[in-house]
Amino acid sequence: MDFRTTGFRVRAGLLAAAVVLPASGAMAAQTYGYVVSSLSTATWNDYNANCPQNINGHGLDVRRRDLIAIGLTPAEADKIVKGGDEESVPKDIAGRLIMRAMVNGKPASYYSAPEAVPNPPMIETVVGPQAFGFDLGGKATDSKFTDPDTGAKVDNQLWRAVGCSENFRFIPPSLPFTEEISWAVTIDTAPAWMLSITGEDLAKDGPVTVTFERATQHLERDANGNIMTHATYMIDPKGRSHNVLKGEIKNGFLTIATTDKFYLQSEMPFFPEIELNKAQLRFQVMPDGKLFGYWGGYTDWKRYAYMLTSRPGSGADVLGLYHALKRFADAAPDPKTGQNTQISMTFRMEAVPAFHMTLDSKVMASPAADASAVSAMMRKTPEARPKGGEEPPRLKTN
Questions:
Q1: Do 299 and 342 touch, CB atoms closer than 8 A?
Q2: Of the residues 101, 116, 131, which one is the last residue of a structural domain?
């Protein structure tokens, strides 16, 4: 396919964005605007291949293992978890569950001292061959996945660490459980993220600019509760999330390279920030005019672990996840300990068309003028693979 007949796609460089945009004749200094409507850890749920042992289980299974780990017999643990909720755990035992770490010979909370827990759990991790991601230059070729869309060998060790947890057994567009909860709050409380693509004529070869910003207001919903398209967002002048990426469209591809960190400020309870090193991005336009794609790079695994374990109702083995993330971290070794401080990962992103304005009402970006033409054109372009697995099998029991 000649992508110049349907728009352009971006893929390359240390920070690369693969974007397909509509071609509708000459568009002098055209800037298309979008606002990020969904962001989550990218999942690829081929359960049988990923987690053949299927032993991690759900919240009650984790609780049973924890009770046995602090010294209860299997029969005693079974009697407690049979109650099915937190209230069924006696207060003295609940305290022992939390105070499992040993610091200077004294019990301490494992949330504060996860490294000080004797014999931490070893959860099942992903052994399947596929995951979404990018080739970030990782040298351990035997640990790479194959991207289901591109067929390329990619680095995504975070998925290897967390992908067998029940929290991540969700098929897109559904988000992983704890991220779904926190994103639903973020939509209505935290400033939105915006991105725009600018070029003299985005259907032809030439220079372009991709700009990321943070808005001054949160995402807007329509009457159905979905993220509103063609809404107007004001650009935050503080600029902490301001990323300007210069690139070039050539032979239907847009390439952007940068050695800087890719950074977006956010708010709890979602990710307090997105910071990726050696970041790469890949997008395409869907038939309805929305952007869909992936952000990949290296991130601080401890920050991710904090985000993951600080959320309510996770039902996950948070201690096991912490140590899995530590074990599979694959970049930026600490010069003193040798322990890697960053882990390769990929986010899944969706964005809807939007207007961008400055606080003095200057329009900086707008949606494509003819949305129906975009939809008709994109029906000819393969959409991102809609796969992601099937319903997960239940936990194996003895």
A1: yes
A2: 116
The answer to the question of residue 127 being in a domain is yes
**Residues 160 and 222 both lie in one domain:** yes
Q: Tell me how far apart the alpha carbons of residues 75 and 202 are, in angstroms, rounded to a whole number.
A: 67
Same domain for 69 and 169, yes or no, is: no
| Same-domain check for residues 251 and 331 | yes
Mean pLDDT, residues 62-71 taken together: 92
Do residues 81 and 199 both lie within one domain?
Answer: no
Claim to verify: residue 44 and residue 63 sit in the same structural domain: no
Report pLDDT digits (tens) over 361-378: 999 999 976 544 333 223
Phi-psi category of 340—alpha, beta or left, where left has phi over 0 and alpha has psi -120 to 50?
beta
pLDDT tens-digit profile of 185-219? Answer: 999 999 999 999 888 877 677 787 889 999 999 99
- What is d(CA 31, CA 23) in angstroms, rounded to the nearest whole number? 13
Query: Domain range for residue 209?
Result: 3-50+123-378
Residues 6+ apart with CB under 8 A from 77: 63, 64, 67, 68
- Spatial distance between the Cα atoms of 348 and 283, rounded to a whole number of angstroms: 10
To the nearest 10°, report the CA torsion of 24, 209, 270, 239. Answer: -130
How far the first Cα of the chain sits from its last, in Å, is 53
CA distance 201 to 283: 19
Q: What is the total count of domains within the chain?
A: 2
Are 92 and 229 in a shared domain? Answer: no
pLDDT of 369: 67
Residues 6 or more apart whose CB falls under 8 angstroms from that of 219 comprise 35, 37, 187, 188, 192, 227, 228
Say if 165 falls within a structural domain: yes
128 and 92 within one domain: no
Q: Looking at the structure, do residues 199 and 107 belong to the same domain, yes or no?
A: no
Q: Token digits for 378?
A: 């994109």
Q: Tell me the pLDDT band of 256, cut-offs 50, 70 and 90.
A: low
**Whole-structure pTM value:** 0.84
Residue 254, classed as helix, strand or coil, is strand
Any idea what DSSP says for residue 237?
Answer: T
Neighbours of 211 (CB within 10 A): 19
Q: CA-based angle 65:70:73, to the nearest 5?
A: 70
